[in-house]
Amino acid sequence: MTKLHLVAVALFAFALVPTATHARPASRDCTSAVQTVQAELDAACPCASAASHDAHVRCVARKLRDLSACKPGPDGKRNCGPLPRTCVARVRQTAMRSACGKPADTVACCVPRQRDCVGDQHPGDGTQDGTCAGTTRKCDRVTDCVVPKCQLAPSGDRCTSLGGTVGTGRDCATACAQ
Questions:
Q1: Is the whole-model pTM more than 0.85?
Q2: Which long-range contacts (CB under 8 A, 24 or more apart) does 23-26 make?
Q3: Strand partners for 165
Q4: Helices (H), 17-155
Q5: First-to-last CA distance in the chain?
Q6: What is the pLDDT of residues 46-82, one digit of tens each?
Q7: 103 closest CA partner among 51, 42, 176
């Protein structure tokens, strides 16, 4: 047999080897997975009663480990929690960018940021052929690309002095939702 034949046989044999099965599909959407576990996270780590911001983030990290853990089941297959490991960093980042455990006056502030309208060959023609830079938002002209950016502000007054509006939630994941 030639080397090429040996490689082909090895690849074919590798393809026949059964792979481990998981309790959830790999392509699961993080948004729906987070919505599924959000109530459990909120109950375990309530924002309003957090002793400090660091304590809140540590609590969320511990709960995320539990919700994403994979353990062998009685049938030998891996049983994984409801939150895919690929979504853990996103949820942890949300906790780190929240006002939980910070002074009560701290707010999530939505500050408008101007972006470019990219890819529209005929700006102002009424058809949104372009997209706002760094987003998936469609645009026809640059004025369509004022996108809110969330940041924490020490108070509502400070937020409005920055040209922003006080968000609807205590974290940046929900504050500027449109």
A1: no
A2: 23/70, 23/77, 23/78, 23/79, 23/80, 24/80, 24/82, 24/84, 26/84
A3: 110
A4: 30-44, 53-68, 88-96
A5: 63
A6: 988 999 999 999 999 999 999 999 988 888 888 889 9
A7: 51
